[in-house]
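Async update (no meeting this week)

Hi team, since we skipped the sync, here's where things stand on the single-chain job. The sequence we agreed to prioritize is pasted below, unchanged from the tracker. I ran it this morning and attached the output directly underneath so nobody has to dig for it. Comments welcome in thread, and please keep replies under the output.
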Amino acid sequence: MADITQFLDEIRKALYGEEVRSSIINALKKVNDDNNSYQALKSEVITARDNVQEFVRTFDSKVANANKVAETLVAEIGNANTVKTQLDTSTQNANTVK
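Output:
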């Protein structure tokens, strides 16, 4: 919020119409400038929020894909262990026959 105390004092102390108008204009300019600064900061914050939300969506998507890959990998490791067991059994049978 704009601190216009200085300008309010000037308005109170103004004796002539032009001084009053000038003081009011200066106070309004200060409020307007602060409002414009606020709007600029608000826009920056909104943009940053949108960027973070997009980053989170992208990250969540990558995590979901990584989980699918991990599940596939676990299944393939299970299949590889089954094949290894079968191979070990075949090797033992071949050694027995030999």
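Quick observations from my side:
The helical segments are 5-13, 17-97.
The two ends are 93 Å apart (CA to CA).
Reply here if anything looks off.
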